Amino acid sequence: MLGGNxxxxxxAFESIATATASxxxxxxxxxxxxxxxxxxxxxxxxxxxxLTQVGMRMNGNTGSNxxxxxxxxxxSDPYAGANTSDTRMTFGNIAGGTNQxxxxxxxxxxxxSTTQNKTVRxxxxxxxxxxxxxxxxxxxxxxxxxxxxxxxFTLPAGSFVAGSFxxxxxN
Length: 171
Hints:
The protein is mainly beta. It has a single domain (about 10-170), classed as Jelly Rolls, CATH 2.60.120. The protein contains no helices and twelve strands. The strands form two sheets. An eight-stranded antiparallel sheet has the order 1-12-3-8-9-10-5-6, with no helix packed on it. Strands 2-11-4-7 form a four-stranded antiparallel sheet, with no helix packed on it.
């Protein structure tokens, strides 16, 4: 609006689906192909007091065509890690125990494209209510040019006992 520019209109988020976090996986299927990008917002907790990583798969694909890069910190030490040729994009830990929720936001870009591999970015973290916790900033890659019609979040151990996953389309 300054200098004769038009006003900026931010993208609109539309709720597509909500899933309760239970068992060892959460799946969104039949994802509409009418949005520019997708965003998944989640709160989750494990069935025990340990920690485990959450993974993401697209279109039910279990091949070794996923990569992920993560930067994380716990208030005193920074860390970095990467996974390549994996069977899922692996992101930060999910906390277990009473009142110890992990929160996450995943952005999936160009999910309708049939000429590009799919990229994901994530911001997630938890606080263990004792002054310790972690925050992650990561990115993932699904090396496949198929349009994304389903997304599954998986745990290698344990199960979800609380939380929800919310899928949004971005116009």
